[in-house]
Amino acid sequence: MQTVTKPTTTGSDPGAILTLPPLPPDLRPFPVPRRRRFLRVSWFFFRVIVHVFIVDILFNRYRLTRWYAQRTGVARYQRMAREFRRLAVRMGGVLIKLGQFLSARADVLPAAITDELAGLQDEVPPAPLPYVLQILIAELGASPERIFARFDPTPVAAASLGQVYYGELRDGRPVAIKIQRPRIDEIVEIDLSAVLWAVRVVKNYPLIRRRADLELLFEEFARVLREELDYVSEAHHALRFRVNFADTPGVYFPKPYPELSTRRVLIMERVDGIKISDYAALDRAGVDRAEVATRLNRAYLKQFFIDGFFHADPHPGNIFVRVEGPPPPQTNGVKPGAPFTLILLDCGMVGHLPPTTMEIMRSGVIGLATNDPERIVEALDRLGMILPGADRRPIIQALQIVLRHTYARSQRELTNIDVEKLFDETEHLVRDLPFQIPQDLIYLGRAISLVSGIVTGLHPDINLFEETQPFAQAMLDRERRNGDWLEEIRREVTALSQVAATLPRQMDAYYKAANRGELQMRVDLSRLERGMKRVERATNRLSGGIIAAALFIGGTLLRINGFADEAFWSWAAAAGVALWTVWPRNDR
């Protein structure tokens, strides 16, 4: 589940089932103000878009205002994060998920921002009990007393889409009962329509339009979110994870009970543990946080590169640590940590990777572990993350510079890198950022970023390069051991035969064109063109500034001489020319 609202306990109140109130006979439908909700969410996104455009895009283009945009960046975004958190807690729905995603990005976002959003994992108010019981009775077709020996009416967790209660089945099995929020389907659709409005505005920004089809990415997000509302699918996902990790000690997925579950109610095995982001509780229990970070990282490497089926919502509210006993005695001056098991909950959001994608990703991670930028760029290209026609040579050079600054460094060291210096070294190589976001990798990127943020929070000194190297070496050994050399040779021979068959015709065409004087040379002048456009833009702005100043001075002289109307139009023209001069253009 997603959001713990009270500490877990070891047992339910034996008489809790008797305390359930009867459903009021005049229970009104759960209120969902559709229009007001849409307008409030849309208005927030509109204000953020306008703020980013004016301060972070427009102000950053000019030296006179750039200092303000850069110096106040963290404070401004902290203020927006605080406002977003208040809105998300009040509105719930999709906003909670978005905030939880951002709160786990400790590897990218400043602590001031993630700390503001972290409260979303603990502040989601539960839905009123009568509406929840109404859903439970309608879905199970019986009153709770006929199915459960005990049912605690106080939720132990509340999240964006549902909330969890503890109970016990008639046969004595302790269970967790996950019940969807009332009318959550409608709430999700309203929120998605507001997000879609923002997407249609933002996608017009050229820098974004060239790199991603935001509407396709939104459709993928909406599809997975709607699937997450189907608890029957979530139960099957959990069963598949249990099979995949059956031979992996220390990682556990609770057992679901599909025969007792429905689309809106999921009944599963009850487990207890410490929330993975509760560092104080982990330290009190004697758990080695570095070991927790390592095990979590390896569990996801297995999902990404071996299983091809991964838990796509690994934020801290969905991962717990169950302590299995006291720490063993100290040996050789080293104090070992307490034995523990990682528990992963909420399998509604999952990702699938086809074998071809997994093969390419394995090649890329091997390149990352072995500091091979050419292999990394080749993998990115095959994954469709590099724009068609982009020159790979400057990308490789830029990646070499990035790896020189980052390779074999811990997460703590990476946060202290001089980003401005790194950007200065690579800006001339990849000025146009020739990258795009493939639609089918959106949830892979989300999961990687969330795990990276959690691992960094657990153990800031972890070196993910070192953690990846043994895994990459194992994949490389298996690739060599299991490689079909006969098939590889057959492919190479086929490719060479095709070249041998077409080469004489191509050479003949080349010599004929040379004899006729029809050879053409193609030269990449893109960098020269960008330089000329910058010079042209600077000239236009200088001219515009001169014209605006002249109009303003002329208007002032007219006003002094009593021509008020003419002065007004002169000043208006000056303002128009000044606006045209500073208006950002996509001419880089």
The backbone outline, from C-alpha atoms, is globular
Q: Give the biggest sheet.
A: 5 strands, antiparallel
Structural class: alpha+beta
* Estimated share of beta-strand residues: 5-15%
Total beta-strand segments: 11
Contiguous runs where pLDDT drops below 50 for at least 5 residues = 1-12
Tally of DSSP helical segments: 23
Distance between the termini: 46 Å
Q: What Rg do the Cα atoms give?
A: 30 Å
Question: Mean of residue pLDDT?
Answer: 80
Helix fraction bin: 55-70%
Please give a structural write-up.
The protein is α+β, with helices and mostly antiparallel strands and 588 residues long. The protein has 23 helices and 11 strands. Strands 1, 2, 3, 4 and 6 form a 5-stranded antiparallel β-sheet that branches. Strands 5-10-9-7 form a 4-stranded mixed β-sheet. A two-stranded antiparallel ribbon has the order 8-11. Strand 2 and strand 3 (162-169) form a beta hairpin. Helix 14 packs antiparallel against helix 15. The chain is globular and about 90 Å long. Residues 1-12 have low confidence and may be disordered.
Secondary-structure topology with pairs:
Layout: H1 34-58, H2 63-71, H3 73-91, H4 94-103, H5 111-118, H6 129-140, H7 144-147, E1 148-151, E2 157-158, E3 162-169, E4 174-180, H8 184-202, H9 206-209, H10 214-228, H11 231-244, E5 251-252, E6 265-269, E7 274-275, H12 279-284, H13 289-307, E8 309-311, E9 319-323, E10 340-344, E11 350-352, H14 355-369, H15 373-382, H16 392-406, H17 411-415, H18 419-426, H19 442-458, H20 464-482, H21 485-515, H22 526-560, H23 564-582
Parallel strand pairs: 5-10
Antiparallel strand pairs: 1-3, 2-3, 3-4, 4-6, 7-9, 8-11, 9-10
Helix pairs in contact: 1-3, 1-8, 3-4, 3-5, 4-5, 8-10, 13-19, 14-15, 14-20, 22-23
